[in-house]
Write a structure and sequence with these properties.
Chain lengths: 587, 151
């Protein structure tokens, strides 16, 4: 017979043993049960953490006054968490709601939703992407409505449990096609194409940051929201828009194949506007027309008489001539075995160098180049960057090395034939004349904004091909000659310097004159370069119209473009008329 | 007197038991206190952590909203919108002969964009989370003790 004490002791022992067995059983159960094992794995995963890559928001692009030219828009990817949707088994409800709100076929959503994780191997299934905020708001509202429905255990209420949406950013261009040839584009999938977008892609994209995500709330990390650097361009939106409109009008009116107008600040190399036709259509990603060429930096052409500015600059700088140096124009000259005629095939008799520029005499400029000598002439062209890249910070600039220097090409090169240049290279070279002989590198990006701070990029000097004195003398010559050369330039109150250009075009393969004539007889390239105010240039405008139909002459078709652009520029750039400016300066 | 005390304990063994129980309870209470403090701080950290999670989610949503609002602003101030607006207000486009240049003292024309303070690569932003939120209780305790000892 057990004593009371032993009995009580035994009962306690039994109770403790049973508790121990229960605990042991529970432990074994937890270790062997699949759901528990899954949870354990999940917990280990969550508590140990996983690295999540955060894609930075792409930096914005502004014009020189801070007007946004490229921004970002939030869109959403809608997906279904299969674990959750399978759990409630509401594929029909999800398919019905999503097809209605997101405007996609019911069958498509149902097919994607009504599968298990086992079948797909994925926990999430993407239903659709690039959904705008408005439709996501509608979806969120519907989701909440379903969540508030009351059901019973036997008859549960339908639910959208498992439907999720994730935001991401896509590129937007609020000014649409404005300056699209300069800005370029970014596809829906983030590929940068052309222009600044491609040139500065790394900077704009930023560095993705890695964030350690854990399910433990007491483990926190200092994760900063990454953002790509933003860019402030040298482009002035107002000038760009105005110049694009003027160019479109004149290309249409003259029946030209295409056109280019570049407006720059010769003092800094800032490109204020770069208008081209056609512009860069931001076409769908798979459109073959995506291969766009920016003619301002990629189209090489023979510039013609605008290049006489460089020849005369070299002759003045070398001390070979002065503005008043006389020249007897017979209308024909032979240089290096090549016979040169004037554009009008007429001899103009006794003229000065200023007259040579005013009448745009090939014979005069070819003779000047001959007298300058092959070595000196090409040293000057090299100093002006002819045959070299201008260094503009845009993707895709093309060059055509200058043909082997020699007497044979000397004459043609003196008036801008037999040499191929992109318009930006001509702008860079001639800007030296408008900027006291200092040639600045053309640039599109003015500042970089990173981590809330603005880094201003300093203008860069490329070279000093001529002296300031030569630059001033030539500007004065071109101011005088412009008044006589083209009556199509009327900008009241402002003295401007400029030069017209009419260039012949070599026949392309397949053209009727190919292999018959060195140049086509049915088309020309019309150009104009000008700057002002003549005594303190604030802008330089370069115009190129490709194969105008109404007239072949630069003075007739390209000069009015310059005139129209300058009439707007003086207002947009707040440039006072010369009289008022001098009055202010004297005060 | 110590001899008498030892003798007294030997004569009453329950006193030894009480002493042992007392020591055990002391250990238990101390452990419970430490655990309590640890739990208190863990709970506080967790609560703050959850709040930070919530704030981070808000921050993310705000970033997306900012991007959207910048886009809306850009569209509203785009050339096309401004032109439509001007047209609605019966503004006409000027012609060059209508323009008169006026000198306005103190007006220097449009100024180029200054989107932030001028940059200098040495001023990288510091961490915004205080160390108290990321260090363990022991690290915190050690830091406080070191601070006290240095005073």
């Amino acid at each position: 017979m057990l004593s009371d004490f032993e009995l009580r002791t035994n009962i306690i022992k039994v109770i403790f043993s049973m508790v121990a067995i229960l605990i042991l059983g529970r432990i074994i159960g937890l270790q062997t049960n699949k759901a528990n094992r899954d949870f354990q794995e999940y917990w280990e995963y969550v508590s140990s953490g996983y690295e999540e890559e955060i894609t930075p928001a792409r930096g914005l692009i502004y014009d020189r006054y801070g007007t946004p030219l490229a921004t970002n828009l939030t869109v959403y990817e809608v997906n279904v968490n299969l674990e959750k949707s399978n759990f409630v088994g509401n594929a029909e409800t999800i398919a019905s709601v999503l097809s209605r709100i997101l405007d996609i076929p019911y069958d498509e959503v149902f097919r994607k939703t009504n599968v298990s994780v086992k079948e797909t191997g994925f926990t999430r299934k993407i239903i659709t992407s690039f959904i705008d905020q408005e439709r996501i708001d509608q979806l969120a509202l519907t989701y909440d409505e379903y969540e508030n429905l009351n059901g019973t255990k036997k008859n549960p209420a339908p639910t959208l449990y498992g439907v999720e949406w994730t935001p991401f950013l896509i590129r937007q261009y609020p000014e649409e096609e404005l300056a699209s040839n300069v800005i370029g584009s970014v596809s829906k999938y983030g590929d940068a194409r052309r222009g600044v977008e491609q040139q500065y892609d790394e900077l704009l994209s930023g560095v993705p940051s890695k964030s350690l995500q854990t399910g433990l709330p007491n483990v926190i990390h200092d994760d900063d929201w990454p953002k790509g650097s933003s860019l402030v361009l040298t482009i002035d939106r107002e000038i760009q828009r105005t110049v694009e409109d003027i160019l479109d009008f004149h290309v249409d009116e003259t029946g030209s194949l295409s056109g280019v107008v570049i407006v720059s600040d010769p003092e800094t190399g800032d490109v204020l506007a770069m208008a081209t036709t056609s512009r860069y259509d931001r076409l769908p990603d798979n459109d073959p027309r995506i291969e766009f060429v920016n003619p301002a930096i990629e189209s090489l052409y023979e510039p013609g008489s605008v290049s006489k500015v460089l020849t005369m600059a070299a002759a003045l700088d070398a001390g070979l001539v002065t503005p008043d140096t006389p020249f007897l124009d017979t209308g024909i000259v032979e240089v290096g075995g090549v016979t040169v005629y004037n554009w009008d095939r007429v001899g103009h008799g006794q003229v000065t160098m200023t007259g040579c520029m005013e009448l745009s005499l090939n014979v005069c400029l070819a003779s000047v180049a001959r007298d300058l000598g092959v070595t000196t002439f090409y040293e000057y062209l090299d100093a002006f960057g002819i045959g070299h890249r201008s260094g503009i910070d845009l993707e895709g600039e093309r060059i055509y090395p200058l043909a082997i220097p020699g007497e044979g090409n000397l004459a043609a090169h003196s008036f801008g034939q037999a040499m191929n240049l992109a318009p930006i290279q001509m702008v860079t070279a001639i800007s030296a004349v408008a900027n006291d002989g200092v040639m600045m590198a053309p640039r599109i990006v003015r500042s970089i904004i990173s981590n809330g701070r603005q880094y201003d990029l300093p203008p860069k000097v490329i070279s000093k091909p001529i002296t300031a004195e030569t630059a001033h003398t030539l500007t004065e010559m071109l101011t005088v000659s412009l008044q006589g050369e083209s009556s199509n330039i009327e900008v009241d109150g402002y003295r401007l310097a400029g030069k017209t250009g009419t260039a012949q075009i070599a026949p392309y393969k397949g053209h009727p004159e190919y292999d018959i004539l060195p140049y086509r007889t049915d088309a020309t390239n019309a150009s104009f370069v000008g700057w002002g105010p003549a005594d303190d240039p604030k802008f330089l405008v370069y115009v190129w119209l490709e194969e105008p139909q109404t007239s072949p002459w630069g003075s007739v078709v390209a000069a009015p473009v310059f005139s129209d652009v300058v009439n707007e520029l003086v207002v947009l750039m707040d440039i006072p008329p010369d009289a008022i400016r001098l009055q202010i300066a004297n005060q | 007197m110590p001899k008498n005390l030892i003798q007294a304990y030997q004569q009453a063994p329950w006193r030894v038991q009480i002493q042992r129980i007392g020591l055990f309870l002391l250990f238990l209470v101390t452990s419970a206190l430490i655990a309590g403090v640890y739990l208190y701080f863990s709970a506080q950290t967790t609560a703050v952590g959850v709040e930070i999670w919530r704030l981070e989610a808000t921050q993310e949503a705000t970033h997306f909203e900012i991007e959207n609002l910048q886009n809306v602003l850009a569209e509203k101030s785009s050339v096309r919108s401004m032109e439509e607006w001007a047209k609605d207000l019966n503004f006409d486009r000027y012609t060059p002969d209508e323009v008169e240049y006026m000198v306005i003292p103190g007006y220097y024309g449009r100024q180029t964009a200054q989107m932030g303070p001028t940059g200098n690569f040495s001023n990288a932003p510091d961490s915004i989370i205080k160390p108290a939120y990321t260090q363990s209780l022991w690290e915190w305790l050690l830091e406080k003790l070191l601070k006290l000892s240095s005073q």
